[in-house]
C-alpha cells in the first residue's frame, strides 16, 4: 500500500535538504551548468518549482501543463533568475504542493500526468519525492546518489524497473538487489516481482544485472553509464530516456 502521508513528510525533508544546500550558492553558481545536458542549475531549480505547481494542477483536477511547449518556455523564462528568487520560488511552490496534498481527497482515484500517463493519486507524493531527490543530485553541488535515503533508493529502483517492464526495446533481464531478491524488467513475459516473492519460479532471463543501489539507480535513471555494475549472461543494454 502506498503511504501518501509518509511520502509527503519525506518530500518536506528532501526539500529542506535541497534548500539548505542551495542557499550556500551565489548568483554566479546558479548560472553554471548542471549535470543535465543543456541545463544550468537555474534550469533545474525552475523546473522543480514549476513541477510542484504542475502537481497541484493534477491534484485539483486540471491538466498538469498547458502544453509541452508552455512547460519548456516557463523553465527557460525562470532559469536566469538570481538565487534569492529561485530559493523563494522553490520554497513557495513546495508549500503550495503540500497544502494541496493536505486537503482531504480520494487518493485511490486515477489522475493524468504529462503525456497522457495515468497513475493513482496516492503515487503523486512519491513522484514529487523523486523530482526533489534526483534533481538535488543533478545540481552537482556535493549531493550524490550515495547520499540518498536508503528507502528512497530502493523504492526508486523498483519504480523504474516497473516502468521499463514490458518495454520491447529493453531486453528481458533481472535486477539482483543487494538483499538477493530479483526484480524482472524489460521484455520479460509472464514474470512479475509478485510471482517471484510468492515462491513461483517461472523461466527467468539469462541476463542479470547487479551492483550497489546507487549504481543501479544511476543506470536506471540515466545518471550513470552502468560501468560499475556486474552483468551476467550478456552485455548491459542501453535504456531509453525516461
Brief summary:
This protein is 48% helix and 8% strand.
Could you characterize the architecture of this molecule?
- With 242 residues, the protein is α+β, with helices and mostly antiparallel strands.
- Helix 3 (41-59) packs across helix 4, helix 3 packs parallel to helix 5 and helix 7 runs parallel beside helix 9.
- 30% of the residues are buried.
- The strands form 2 sheets. It has a 4-stranded mixed β-sheet, covered by helices on one side.
- It starts with a helix and ends in a 10-residue tail after the last strand.
- The longest helix has 19 residues, at 4-22.
- It is built from 9 helices and 6 strands; from the N terminus they run αααααββααββαβαβ.
- It has helices at residues 4-22, 27-30, 41-59, 68-78, 83-101, 124-138, 150-164, 193-197, 213-220, and strands at residues 110-112, 118-120, 173-176, 182-185, 208-210, 230-232.
Largest sheet: 4 strands, mixed
Mean pLDDT: 93
How much strand? 5-15%
Distance between the termini: 24 Å
Order of helices and strands: HHHHHEEHHEEHEHE
Radius of gyration based on Cα positions: 19 Å
* Number of E-type strands: 6
Share of residues in helices: 40-55%
Q: Find the structural class using helix and strand composition.
A: alpha+beta
Any low-confidence stretches, pLDDT <50, length ≥5? Answer: none
